[in-house]
Amino acid sequence: MRDFTFAKYRELCRAISDSDYKVLTVEEYLNSNSNKSKFIILRHDVDLKPERSLIAAEIENEFEIRSTYYIRMTDEVFQPEIIKGIAELGHEIGYHYEVLDKAKGDFAKAIEIFKRELNELRKLCEIKTICMHGNSRTKWDNKDLWKLYDFRELGMLGEAYLSVDLENIVYFSDTARTWSPRYKVKDLARNPENPIINSTDDLIELIKSEEFHQIYILMHPDDWCDDFGKWLTNLVTRKFKNVAKYTLGWYWRNFSNNKNG
Ligand SMILES: [Zn+2]
């Protein structure tokens, strides 16, 4: 079976569900007394294609798994009906900020953008945690914002990199569509005992072995594809008719204008 398909993701969710691990959202991790327990923090960054995150959210829901989805405030990603759909499945929604990039390194401007975008996202659901977006084409590290400001003062419990004990938790990320650390620049594990894995099957085996008690997984649904293209479209249009209507309306307005003008 090909890797990075939703069928493979379902296998991963089944392995997690069959294990003794408790899956935590980032908010639950920050609120829990997690020192001794056996858990997996499951986090998703929604960088480009929110409809794929909705698929992952549905799959997790089948296995009664709740995770965290970090939403970028861009036209592609900020689709309220889809975001609300993910939240209604019981998942945590967080803010995937990139405000130093947007403000071109101007901290004062960046914090204003942060407050504005956070408020926009808060209109849809409660936001308690944030996570920086790592843009490989800019020179800023978005989480540097917190060298000058304090996210707690803005009502945030924590930041998905800064507030997690990455020295002691084993960390796996599918950044760049690979679990192997070889191609990663910024997104690296910091625990010296972190094992190297190369495939989702490796991750499934590692979870089944239950060798490590505290695991942090970052999965980008954007990079996982559907074996059944039609199923994806059907699901989105069936469950989120409003989105379909909106898109259709936009299409209609633009194309009829073009025809007329
Ligand atoms: Zn990102």
Structural class: alpha/beta
Largest sheet: 8 strands, parallel
Q: Please give the CATH architecture of the largest domain.
A: Alpha-Beta Barrel
Ligands in the model, by name, code or SMILES, are: zinc ion
Query: Hey, roughly how much beta strand do the residues contain?
Result: 5-15%
- Number of E-type strands: 8
What is the general shape? globular
CATH topology of the largest domain: the name is TIM Barrel
Keywords:
binds zinc ion; alpha/beta; 9 helices; TIM Barrel; 2 domains; disordered C terminus; 261 residues
Question: Would you write up a description of this structure?
Answer:
- With 261 residues, the chain is an alpha/beta fold.
- It has two domains: 6-227, TIM Barrel; 229-261.
- 39% of the residues lie in helices and 15% in strands.
- It contains nine helices and eight strands.
- The chain has helices at 6-18, 26-31, 50-62, 80-88, 99-102, 107-122, 200-209, 229-239, 241-260, and strands spanning 22-24, 39-46, 68-72, 92-97, 129-132, 158-159, 170-173, 214-219.
- Strands 1, 2, 3, 4, 5, 6, 7 and 8 form an eight-stranded parallel beta sheet that branches.
- Strand 1, helix 2 (26-31) and strand 2 form a beta-alpha-beta unit.
- The termini are far apart.
- 36% of the residues are buried.
- The model is unreliable at 248-252 and 256-261 (pLDDT under 50).
- It binds zinc ion.
- Zinc ion (ZN) binds next to loops.
